[in-house]
Fold these 4 entries.
Entry 1:
Amino acid sequence: MWSAIGDTLPLAVGLALSPVALATAVMLLLGSRGRLKTALFGLGWFVVLLVITAIAAAIVDVADDDAPEATTDGVDILLLVIAVLFAVLAMVAWRKRPKEGDEEKPSILDRLDGLSVWGALAMGVAQGVIVIKNIPLAVAAGARLGEADLDTAQLVVGLLVFALVAASGVIVPLVLAVLGGERAAPTLARFRDWLSYNMTTISIVVLVVLSAYFFGQGIGILD
């Protein structure tokens, strides 16, 4: 079980380092009712990634029971496809990177002004689906767990660990805000500003690292 969970952790970290989710969490924290809104945003993010990963794991688990060798090859091909996808996304992000010193703010963050409590929950669900790398990462993690021949309890643990780590990019700022109180606000504001100027750079680095990871995992099909 722990080996399978270990295989999914790099994918979960890739989700946790989503600049859009990080920026959303920090911006919500700095607004009115920020802690509640951030908690609900994180819940939406957590639930949607958990569901996607669970569906992928269930599909691969059934396929693995029927045709284990073909399923293993299929997962390797999937990982190679994702590797290529992320490499292409990294190149696109590089070509479209803003000029030095320009602030970066995805249009989705413009909707945070006046966002209601339940709107924050809906935003978490929406970002979990529409941020382009989320579904491939969740599906890849589910595929790894599904082919690991885990029993139900082990699979549930693996899914929960993956989803919690994937949501840690939202959870960590929230915990810091709760523990630090008002003293944390200046730090969060500086972090928000830093994200605003480095969002594309972070995305490119994460995409390149994930592309290399998926390529390394997928070439097992050549064995």
Note: The mean pLDDT is 84.
Entry 2:
Amino acid sequence: ISINKKVPQNDKKVLWFVLDEYDPSYVRNPKNPIKLHNISNLIDKSFNHLSSYSPSDYTLQSMPSILTKTFSKGHSFKDYQLYLHKDNNLKIKFEINETFLGKLTNEDFNYEIISEVLPYCSMLKIKTSCKDSHNKPFFYFDAIKQIYLPAGYFSKIFEYFKKREKFNYEIIDKLQIKDDDLFVSKKLSIKTNDLKNLINNDNNLIFLHLFIPHTKTEVTKHTTKAFNNMMPTNDTEEYFLNLKYTDFIIQKILEMINKNKKQDILLILSSDHWRRIDSPNKPKPSLLVVKIKKDNSKIELSEKNSNIFIGDIILEYLRGNINKHNDITSLFNNNEFDINDVYIWKKN
């Protein structure tokens, strides 16, 4: 499908960052060995949902459910097409017209999808307005490496000779990362300075699904390097390392927004699910922080609800029906949620 660009109704901008497995219980936790100052400062000037649950603990189930505003109980593939399963055996096809993105197109709002996690371009069969690492072509020198030296061996050799520092929470907490080492997506070569162009383009929505702060991904190689090759020795150390790196990214996102002349900017930070290792069989709240540039009021919502309604926030903001943080509260109050609708993927 080729998404035809239209003249947008307005120049309102939404930046939606999905931070993979970002668990909000780690924010402002006094037991943390590191401090997450930037997201804490952001929360003081934003709408923060304290009990917003993802529809699933599994990314492939959760994100399509959020985009289609569908509570589902599993999924399947048929002819390279993803289907979400409802309770009544109804199957929802994961395609543009079933997502809120289709509504954006119908109302003359433009969008762009950027992902280093799920292959949205192929899953939604989009040829334009979409970029993910799974469709990224190899460049000339990449091909040489692929042909003459298997990628796995190359990575192991590189890791073997790399100087390593003993992991130290105190040093990590105080260390300042150089701007040259800050990437919104290292995999897609998107630096923090590139955010300026994303904010200034004619798309009303920029959707970015990033691996940070998820552990056991390619991101950790870069975050380790950014923190002077300080190597984590377990999953918890790796998670905190990635959380701290993510906090620097959040700082740069806010700087770029504040420096930009545009005033009608909505920032959404959310997660696809909580940290599974902390609660493998029971749902926990996921991250959902929303910041309207022109509003610095602090609004917190504690009543249980779901980030499956993020699409509604975006649509209502672009339509001009959400202008302050308190308006978002009204949206959640008008939507029902049952925690039993959260689907826990059963591992065999």
Note: Confidence is low (pLDDT under 50) at residues 137-154, 156-161.
Entry 3:
Amino acid sequence: QALSDQAAERLADLLAWLANDLFRIRRKVIMGNLSPIYPGASAQELLLVSRGMWKNLVLMGCEVAQAPRRINRYSWRAYIELKGMEELVSTILRPQPTILLSGHFGNFEMAGFAAGLLGFPSYTIIRPLDNQYLNEYVNRFRSMHGQYILEKRGSSAQAEAVLQQGGMLALLGDQHAGPRGCWVDFLGRPASCHKALAVFSLVSGAPLLVCYARRTGAPLEFEVGLVDATDPRLHPERCQSVRSLTMWYNAMLETVIRRDPEQYWWVHRRWKGKPLRKRSRVRAAA
């Protein structure tokens, strides 16, 4: 919490080099994710993206530690630049439920922190971290300004209640959903997505807003913005089905990831397994 921005950046550079170049932590997973998406990139170019990702993760930890001390309702303009807020704010202020969707990109924790700081409380569905003490620490940060935490397991009824009451639900849209998920292309590769994200919007009629929080320079310098929004009542072509809506929001997430690929979490297994249907066909053929 006491590190200067310069010291935090030097620490991030060092730890990123150790994780990426020396110890090669999860190198196989990272390169397995990157190589098919950037087939024309050289090994050195992919290595730089991987190292940049590790730096982003370290800086994210530093920012979570420092943001409560430095960013408040008087100082936030020095750290956060808002983009596309007119449509986002006008949608949130309507007497209706709203769904905010983001991905493991940039410092996504700052999106919820900023929303609460600016007076827009939200309910966020998360998977508890394995380390109990770290989980408690991060949740204290998340809930400082009106971000309420719903644990992923068994939260469906709570999420539906939030939407029925006209509340705002915040979700991460790039988590692997297993073979029974909704399979769509994400960054040019088949990925399994949770059907509940689209179902929440289609059943409740809640507009779905794809947002991001990307680092623009030194630590704690962010651009928080809206990629695009869709409303089941206004955009029937996007909201014909769970699949069509899932395809749309994945395409929106792609636009910010391709702009700053080093800020995406290539370390997690986003692309794995196969659709259950394909597996069944293989068994039948055997």
Note: The first strand starts at residue 80 and ends at 83.
Entry 4:
Amino acid sequence: MPASDQHKLYIKNKDLRKLVRDCVAGSDAIKTSRRTDSTDQGGIYNSMGSVYLPVPNPADDSQENADRYAAYRARATFINFTGYTKEGLMGMVSRKPTEIVLHPSIDYAELNANGSGLSLQGLGQAVISNVLEVGQDGLLVDFPSSKGGSKSQTSGLVASIKRYPAESIINWQEKIINSVLVTTQVCLAEEVEKIGADGFTVDDFTYTRVLLLNDDGDYIQRLYDEHDELLVDENGKSDMHIKKSDGSNWKEILFVPVGAENNDLTPDKPPLYDVAEINIGHYRNSADFEESSFLVGQPTPVFAGLTESWVGSMMKGGIQIGSRSGVLLPENASASLLQANPNQMPSAGMDRKEEQLVKIGAKIISDRGGVETAEASKIKFAGQNSKLGLIIINTELAFQKCFEWMMGFQGSDGDNIFNINKQFYEATVNPQLLVAQMQLLDRKVIAKSDVRSALRKGGLISHDRTDEDIDGEAELTSPII
């Protein structure tokens, strides 16, 4: 089996992921996406855009039909409800900065987590963004190869976190070892650029990085080129052993998946898939509505009772229609305007899908003539918010695992804090609850810190003000008379 083989679950989820990716990317991606599964039908069926907007007459291979389909697709309007929903959810995540406190041995990662200058907060947001779109992401903790050298010569090397999108996690294997499910192999597709012999041409290739546990249970990496040929170093060795700070081998693969539901390698359903699917239906209704409006939207003049000689002598140059023009007709002839009744079915379909999008929690911009309360907004988007909260928790757990491995590279041990914002709405203080808490404080049932914690959550006390700061200022403040 070649290294680039794809897991059956990876293949199964390809189309779902592509649909959401294209919807988030917007109109250009939707209108230029090509079918790849119907090459046997040929002709216009495989023309640009037919993957999301079916060709009305796929059996007609004529250029006329191709041109008509191109116009049909161009008139269609794609409103990016999926992208708006994702932006709304990501905006909720970034309402407050991530709380980060790292062990001194890895505190460099806060500003440069991936070795290329991306901050830890930026990396965390990138993971959440991708999980929202395709339901999965992956983090690989790696340590640069020192190729020998003294401790002082390798002291500047530090561990980093590399992010792999779901499309890169192409295959995996798991086994039950000592009653525990253990990941024994992960295959990751990597894009590699090669500069041509002329020094200018750049070609893109896909390599496969294989992470696995060998027969001794040691974690190693192997790299395969675009031809699935195993690459070796200058010493003819292909296995890259990943070592801890004490020189021992790792006994686990340092790769953690992040999922929409669970942090395992089984792909989860993309959280935005339902929104994207209705979004495509709305786009198709739009195409039919615009096509109908174009074909029958303009009135057509109709003349009855004309003779051939009259047309030849009086209308040979055509006619003009308008308030400043007149059309001469022979005796007993008549003229009228033929105009079709409005076709409301495609339009009604668009309206219905917009209602469906709101019901499933799509964060679209709407103005119904009133101000929506924060509580009503929470209820409307409860489903999406709960999914987002679970994704955040899964992301935090994955990063905590990465920090543990990074400290293993550095030879350190300790705790780390990585708390992503989960307060999606501005908190408010219930006056009745506050009065009740004050009464409990007077009766010494709760402490001042409990009351102040509630005030911080409600935004009445700044989060960066400690109880000691408040007590110090209270001592200096005269009571209000």
Note: The first helix runs from residue 8 to 12.
